[in-house]
Design goal:
Oligomer: single chain
CATH class: Alpha Beta
Structural class: alpha/beta
Shape: globular
Number of strands: 12
CATH architecture: Alpha-Beta Complex
Order of helices and strands: EEEHEHEHEHEEEEEHHEH
């Protein structure tokens, strides 16, 4: 396996829950698009040498101008899996490790990116960052009735970037019909072991307007603290 690490960012979604009409990845956060902040985190990693972004097909040129010449931008698909597959194919042939990162996690620290990449390079075929679940979770049926209450101590909330050996992720994406919500789910379906590492509270996903408010507040606090140093 090549030790060169690449990252792909599916950013073609509309993000309707966030509102505003602008594609979610391009929504400003403290004056700069979330996508740009997410990509800058990847580029700040000690391991990542290439970044490919799958953008809305009509905005490829716009996104390319925002991100600059150091980032490859390709047209995304109608579904997230289509965007990841297209971005994966656009990586250089000698990329052996792939990180898949959400554009909507703009405050993810570069140290988390490094940790995921290092774990794959150390021999784990698939690695995901996770956090303990703090709320009680209920499984319900189609009528809204509770079926069971899973043990909270064995549940984890999954974040990105998720890291994989490239050959394994390619094989996983050859199956178009699996109903999964993350890339690790596709790999799990192959029977490949997925290793977890500690995630970061900062790597939360901006999905709703309240998440954007929280991200703005955290970023403002971080910038204020940096200015005092």
């Amino acid at each position: 396996m090549s030790t060169r690490v690449g990252a792909v960012v599916p950013a073609a979604g509309r993000g309707e829950r966030l509102g505003g009409g602008t594609p979610k990845a391009l929504r400003p956060l403290a004056g700069r698009p979330m996508l740009l902040r997410a990509v800058e985190t990847l580029l700040a990693s000690a391991h990542v040498t290439q970044v490919v972004v799958a953008a809305p097909p009509t905005l490829v040129d716009v996104v390319g101008q925002i991100l600059g010449p150091g980032v490859c931008v390709v047209p995304g698909g109608g579904e997230r899996v289509d965007s990841v597959r297209t971005a994966l194919d656009a990586l250089d042939d000698d990329i052996g490790v792939v990180l898949v990162h959400d554009a909507a996690r703009p405050l993810t620290p570069a140290t988390l990116v490094d940790a995921v990449a290092a774990a794959v390079l150390a021999g784990h075929p698939a690695v995901i960052p996770v956090l303990p679940v703090t709320d009680t979770v209920k499984e319900i049926d189609a009528d809204g009735r509770v079926v069971r209450t899973p043990r909270r101590d064995v549940l984890r909330a999954v974040q990105t970037p998720q890291g994989f050996r490239r050959d394994i992720l390619r094989t996983a994406y050859a199956n178009r019909d699996l109903p999964v919500t993350d890339d690790a789910g596709l790999v799990e379906a192959l029977g490949v072991p997925v290793t977890t590492i500690p995630g970061s509270e900062e790597a939360f996903k901006v999905t709703r307007p309240v998440d954007l408010v929280l991200a703005e507040a955290l970023l403002a606090d971080s910038l204020a603290r940096d200015g005092q140093r």
